[in-house]
Amino acid sequence: GSKSLKNFCVAWILTCITLCIVLPCQLLIRNQDQSSVMERSNKSLDMTETSGFICGYISCVFYLGSRFPQLYKNFRRRSTEGTSYLLFALAMLGNCTYGLSLVLKMPAAESFRALYFLHHLPWLIGSFGVLFLDIFVS
Q1: What pTM, to 2 d.p., does this model score?
Q2: Which residue from 55, 56, 41 is spatially nearest to 122, judged by alpha carbons?
């Protein structure tokens, strides 16, 4: 149990460190080659954007998954004793305002809305999905 959790945490930390090194390097390379950036289509995703998009979905999965242990524990005990309601209240306010900031920042032009929504989907799912799960926890 705890050894596999420890191994998972070490692997996750190494993955995050790797991404923190690789992604900025990709940004530097991309910024140095301005001509290829200008030729790139607005609808296509390059390696850096794709990596960010993948990280967004991975983040979304872990973020949503973070609430299930508490839900399971509450269900098994048939109690919410020991739950920090302030933590969940602040998390709910944070997720609500973050999700609303993404929605309110949506472009006015109808033609850009679908692309904006698609590019921000993992973060919208993460913020509003966790908000929904936090309602069950509380």
Answers
A1: 0.61
A2: 56
What pLDDT score does 24 carry? 62
Q: From the first residue on, what is the mean pLDDT of each consecutive set of 10 residues in the chain (138 residues)?
A: 71 70 61 50 63 82 84 86 86 90 85 82 88 84
Report pLDDT for 38: 47
- Conformational region of residue 82, where left means phi above 0, alpha means psi within -120 to 50, and beta covers everything else: left
Cα–Cα distance, 131 to 98 (Å, whole number): 11
Amino acid at 35: S
CB 59 within 8 A of CB 122: yes
User: How would you write 59-82 as a 3-class SS string?
Assistant: HHHHHHHCCHHHHHHHHHHCCCCC
Q: CA 31 → CA 24, 49, 56, 91, distances in Å?
A: 10, 13, 22, 36
d(CA 123, CA 119): 9
Question: Where in the chain are the domains?
Answer: 35-137
The per-residue pLDDT for 29 is 59
